[in-house]
Amino acid sequence: MAGLCGAVAFSAARWLCRQTPVGLRGRWSGRGYAVGRAESPPTFGFLLDIDGVLVRGHKVIPAALEAFGRLVNSHGELRVPVVFVTNAGNTLQHSKAQELSALLGCKVDPDQVILSHSPMKLFSQHHDKRMLVSGQGPMVENARAYPFVFLLWLERKGQDYDFSLGHAGTRVGSAVAHDWASETWLQWMSCEWPSQCWTWWISSGGQRPRPVQLLGLGCSVSMVSDPPTSRDWMLLEWKVTVALMGLFFVFWQPLLRSDFPAIEGVLLLGEPVRWETSLQLIMDVLLSNGKPGAGLAMAPYPHLPVLASNMDLLWMAEAKMPRFGHGTFLLCLETIYRKLTGKELRYEGLMGKPSILTYQYAEDLIRQQAERRGWAAPIRKLYAVGDNPMSDVYGANLFHQYLQMAKCGKAEEQEAVGLWKQRPSATQSCTSILVCTGVYSSQVLGSTQPSLGGAEPPFHGHRDFSFSPELMQASHIVNDVNEAVQLVFLQEGWAG
């Protein structure tokens, strides 16, 4: 009879647990973490990726809610130190913390979030320089937070771009750009003499087409095809005579002031919206040694300092297929620079996973978080959970390799060019855990997978990182982040 009553009570408890919203179980005692329950101080912490692990696009992955039901106690506090390490950079630190708090049902502080470019604050030797900033979202606010004194950024106003200088707010110039969001009709033009040239015409809202940019020499320009809304244009021949400047500018021609002070470096915070515009402007700055309004006969080398964050070739959003990441944009920039100059584009610093600098920075935040919570025991182990073998697994394994070499005194200093002296590390290991809810999927052919005895997968890492198959082998592969948390708790002897 007692056994029957126990079984009924257990079934009832399971039913009640199912009725409680999963994302709220950690805040109340639905999971059995009673108020005042004594737990030994944690000696481990989590480095959690965001996209593909906790969320897909703006939708939370259900397993993430279950995972935080285990990670959060009945006070609504994390039971172990957690830092969110993302290669995204098109948001603000506090905005990402607020977003995660709302999605996961627990408070996330801004200092628990590491964006791809967060370690840029360590490069203090560039903080007093005029820097060109490329990216999207609140990139000016992000760059000012590090703090760079002078910022030059590309700002959209209507259908024009203004190149503006932070601090002084000086308008440098403007450039015509296409409004791809509106209903746009494109018309190809050809030149009859002296050579073939072409330009774009656009028509928005059913109005007559207008020229965007044309620069040529005494050429007679004719319509090749008709605007769909105006058949009269088919019979018109346009004769345009302008001064020869040596090049035909297709999308835009910057009108830069020659007296503008030289740009001293480039910050690449993330992929921009209009790649062709940003690629052109960055190349102008690099090839002119920071004076695109004046120009140079020969490109200088070494070129101006370039700081880049987020090397992900691909990332996973709500779409079924992976999306191009900032690593793809960097690949385009490197290829163009090498093609034009015959030399390699060099980076003063590369940040974001799999950079060791990012993991050192994350380790320091884990330690600070443990100290604030009064956990006296040093954090000995880190568990890095991610969905991308190249950035998450490779980076965690590379950092683990660095920690092992540091024990023997063989690790090279990975400081930001001597800018940051990290405390002596108590961390002994960094374990990589790969989940199947993002870029990597064991069920999808052609996904980015580690080699499992077959042919080696293509190397999706950045040019400056060597291909090491063993570094892309995750310590554990699980279905989702909830299974990852359960696995770690089991290994550490924790309830959950």
Provide structural commentary.
This protein is 25% helix and 19% strand. The strands form five sheets. It has a seven-stranded mixed beta sheet. It has a six-stranded parallel beta sheet with strand order 5-4-1-20-21-22, with helices on both faces. Strands 12-11-10-13-14 form a five-stranded antiparallel beta sheet, with no helix packed on it. With 496 residues, it is of the alpha/beta class. Helix 8 links the parallel strand 20 and strand 21. The chain is globular. It folds into three domains: 217 residues, HAD superfamily/HAD-like (Rossmann fold); 141 residues, HAD superfamily/HAD-like (Rossmann fold, 3-Layer(aba) Sandwich); 57 residues, no CATH class. The relative contact order is 0.14. It has nine helices and 22 strands. This is Cat eye syndrome critical region protein 5 isoform X1. It holds the Pfam family Hydrolase_6. InterPro entries: CDP-alcohol_PTase-I, HAD-like_sf, HAD-SF_hydro_IIA, HAD-SF_hydro_IIA_CECR5, HAD_sf.
Quick rundown:
Helices cover 25% and strands 19% of the residues.
Set out the fold topology:
Elements: H1 2-19, E1 44-48, E2 55-56, E3 59-60, H2 62-71, E4 82-85, H3 93-104, E5 113-114, E6 130-134, H4 139-144, E7 150-157, E8 160-165, E9 170-176, E10 184-191, E11 200-204, E12 210-211, E13 219-223, E14 237-240, E15 265-268, H5 275-287, E16 306-309, E17 314-315, E18 323-324, H6 326-341, E19 349-351, H7 356-372, E20 381-386, H8 389-407, E21 429-435, E22 476-478, H9 481-492
Parallel strand pairs: 1-4, 1-20, 4-5, 6-7, 6-15, 15-16, 16-19, 20-21, 21-22
Antiparallel strand pairs: 2-3, 7-8, 8-9, 10-11, 10-13, 11-12, 13-14, 17-18
Helix pairs in contact: 2-9, 5-6
